Amino acid sequence: MTNDVLYGKFIVNYRIYITLTRRRSVSYVDNIRQSVEDERRYKRVESVIPVQYRNLRKSGESSTGSLTRNISEGGICFKTSQFISLACRLVVELELPAAPKPVKAISKVAWIRKLPVGDQYEVGNQFLEMTKEDKKMILNFIHESLNIDSPLRIP
Questions:
Q1: In this structure, are residues 72 and 40 in contact, taking their beta carbons and an 8 Å threshold?
Q2: Predicted confidence (pLDDT) per residue in 48-99, tens digit
Q3: Domain with 101 in it: what CATH number?
């Protein structure tokens, strides 16, 4: 049995085939990832902000603390040591720098992925509900982080 494989118009060694297909797959995934980044609805700000979260449906459950990876007007990304199912509703509380009070929101888990090292997960959350005042505080933080003049100053 030979280790040769048909790759396009060429017959190549199986090891080369695996390398070529992996490179093509990685390139394809990178292109998709870049496309998704380009089509994001809101600008993301890389930031490390303390966040407390708990499952909305489990009222007796205590909050779990973490740190954000990034934040946007539409949601946050943070790391956690526990798996949280997709579409799970969370109550999140963010401690934005210079904000007069914590920002509270109801969010849903839009995506989750296991990190390659350790038993950590990265969770993407979409904001579903929050007060107008809390939304303004997030927008102010994002605008200040991006050095954009913000007309939404909260006294």
A1: yes
A2: 999 999 999 887 888 999 999 999 999 999 999 999 999 999 999 999 988 8
A3: 2.40.10.220
The answer to whether 133 touches 93, Cβ cutoff 8 Å, is no
Phi, psi of 40 (to 5 degrees): -60, 145
Contact 120, 96 (CB under 8 A): no
Instruction: Provide the residue range defining the domain that includes 27.
Output: 4-38
Domain identity same for 59 and 21 = no
Same domain, 92 and 114: yes
pLDDT tens-digit profile of 102-133?
999 999 999 999 998 888 999 999 999 999 99
Domain count for the chain, please give it.
2
Q: Is residue 153 part of a domain?
A: no
Q: Report the greatest alpha carbon distance in the chain.
A: 76
Query: Who's near 28: CB < 8 A, 6+ residues apart?
Result: none
128 closest CA partner among 105, 144, 111: 105
pTM score of the predicted model: 0.68
